[in-house]
Write a structure and sequence with these properties.
The chain is an alpha/beta fold and about 475 residues long. It has 3 domains: about 1-30, no CATH class; about 40-275, Rossmann fold, CATH 3.40.50.300; about 280-475, Nucleotidyltransferase, domain 5. It has helices at about 5-15, 20-30, 45-50, 70-85, 110-125, 180-190, 210-215, 245-255, 260-265, 280-285, 335-350, 370-380, 395-405, 420-430, 445-455, and strands spanning about 60-65, 85, 90, 100-105, 130-135, 140-145, 155-160, 175, 200-205, 230-235, 285, 295-305, 310-315, 325-330, 350-360, 385-390, 415. An 8-stranded mixed beta sheet has the order 5-6-7-4-8-9-1-10. A 7-stranded mixed beta sheet has the order 11-17-14-13-12-15-16, sandwiched between helices. Helix 1 (about 5-15) crosses helix 2, helix 11 runs parallel beside helix 12 and helix 13 (about 395-405) packs across helix 15. The radius of gyration is 29 Å and the shape is elongated. The termini are far apart. About 35% of the residues are buried.
């Protein structure tokens, strides 16, 4: 421990109200090297630090209300990465040992956010006993930090810079203090490939809705949740007693509107207030794929577009009249193609078809012949199936979908197979137009199918001897791990 001058000891004696110079010197050392003593993180920070030790995670999100310690934990993770270990516990970080680590810290604007928030936090937490160099950029910001002992670096960048300035970098960690633009994220993420690096997003989600959809709700190519992502979210009260007080929080709340409280106090992104289906929750509504029992009633909806992919959605109703959205098709093709796809799925899975419906636009103009409707219907009729027109009562349909997502007893009656990539992507990002207060007419093909299927209000009934010939009635009941029957 380095000794300090008598003048500083005298000042500290009054500050700490302690006479013993050894205790004063120890407290000064502690204050100047806080990173070595970070033994009492708040619950959210502890969760992040515990997950950081697991090599399976590559992307971390630390989101929530204001003042939950986002910049603090971002700084601590950044510096620990540079050192190669957690200095308060000596826990080694398992990557790139024997070479300098490279960290990039992306803030918002240079003057208000980086100079007034990020840089002071970096200076507060860098150990004073450890020598380092800084270099200023053209804005006068100490933007490059170098640890003299390890050669590890931390480079500060701004979210307001052009994305091409973020290109051409490689490193071990990127910390985002508040949400980045998507092009900024893409430019930086490329630099993590060579070193198998990590990303840490420390954010109050007020804007940049893409973060929620592409990062927090990230999915694999097969549509299943990306298990390399670790999400932490909490409200401002998580940090009470760890740097803020209940009284201070209550005073802050008085300055906010109800909408502002949702994001800044409770950590609920303000843009999510525009979601059509906020009731949809992955941990509640997603189930693993299983074979649809032969006696469940299946409804099929088709959304037709002349220049885009055709959307087909399959939903099954069980004896308890719970719904299972179990298959989707989203491909280019004409009416014949669509009809053939439906026939193939029905035959392969031996589905008990109830109704097949299509967007009324498939009929086209009344004077048209050989319309898309005619083509689909022709294929279906050749295999004993009938095509009907769907309703366009979107408002009533949305209400029905919401009822199934969360019923009167707060329990769902509709579930989605977890590999339905397009359907899940749409329902998690289906938004209202703020001006028109109507759902946006964009990326909504499966959502069109979903509300139309729910409006059918299908009621299950037992099979009888007149059901489809291809079904093996001796095996019409099958058991699965999800439903139990």
């Amino acid at each position: 421990m380095k000794t300090v001058s008598p003048e500083i000891l005298e000042q500290a004696r009054h500050l700490f109200d302690v006479e013993d110079q050894t205790l004063i010197q120890a407290e000064l050392y502690r204050q100047n090297n806080k990173l070595y003593y970070f033994t009492k993180p708040n619950p959210l920070q502890k969760d992040l630090l515990d997950a950081w030790a697991n090599p399976r995670y590559k992307i971390f999100t630390f989101t929530g209300g204001n003042r939950i310690g986002k910049t603090t934990i971002g700084t601590i993770i950044a510096f620990s990465t540079m050192l190669g270990y957690f200095p308060w516990s000596n826990q080694r970080l398992n990557f790139n040992h024997g070479q300098p680590r490279k960290v990039r810290y992306v803030g918002q604007d240079w003057e208000k956010h980086i100079m007034q928030v990020v840089v002071p936090c970096l200076r507060e937490w860098w150990p004073k006993e450890r020598e380092y160099d800084t270099k200023k950029n053209n804005q006068g910001v100490p933007a490059m930090w170098t640890d003299k002992k390890t050669g590890s670096t931390l480079e500060i960048m701004s979210n307001n810079q052009e994305s091409d300035l973020h290109e051409g970098w490689s490193g071990d960690l990127i910390v985002y203090d508040e949400p980045p633009r998507r092009d900024i994220r893409v430019a930086n993420a490329r630099g993590l490939i060579d070193r198998n690096g990590r990303e840490l997003f420390c954010m109050t989600l007020l804007k940049e809705a893409w973060v929620h959809q592409e990062i927090i709700n990230a999915r694999m190519e097969d549509g299943k949740p990306d298990t390399s992502v670790y999400n932490i979210n909490g409200d401002i009260f998580s940090n009470v007693g760890f740097g803020i007080t209940q009284e201070g929080v209550e005073q802050f709340m008085k300055t906010l509107t109800e909408d502002e409280k949702s994001a800044r106090i409770y950590g609920k992104p303000s843009y999510l207030s525009g979601l059509v289906y906020p009731q949809f929750k992955r941990n509640i509504h997603l189930v693993e794929r299983f074979d649809i029992p032969l006696d469940w009633l299946v409804d099929i909806a088709i959304d037709i577009h002349p220049r885009e992919k055709q959307a087909i959605l399959f939903i099954a109703t069980d004896p308890r009249e719970d719904r299972y959205v179990f298959r989707e098709i989203f491909e280019h093709g004409d009416g014949n193609f669509v009809g053939e796809q439906v026939v193939r799925v029905v035959a392969r899975d031996k589905l008990r078809v109830n109704r097949i419906i299509v967007d009324p636009l498939a009929k086209g103009d009344k004077n048209m012949t050989n319309t898309t409707f005619d083509k689909i219907d022709g294929v279906l009729q050749a295999h004993g199936m009938v095509l009907d027109l769907a309703t366009k009562d979107k408002q009533s349909g949305i209400i029905e979908v919401k009822k199934h997502l969360k019923g009167p007893n707060n329990k769902p009656s509709m579930f989605f197979f977890d590999d339905l990539r397009r359907t899940i992507w749409e329902i998690e990002g289906y938004m209202y137009d703020e001006e028109k207060q109507k759902p946006l007419d964009k990326d909504d093909h499966m959502m069109e199918n979903l509300y139309r299927l729910c409006l059918l209000d299908t009621k299950w009934y037992p099979m009888d001897a007149f059901d489809d010939d291809y079904m093996d009635h001796s095996a019409q009941r099958t058991s699965n791990s999800w439903t139990g029957y």
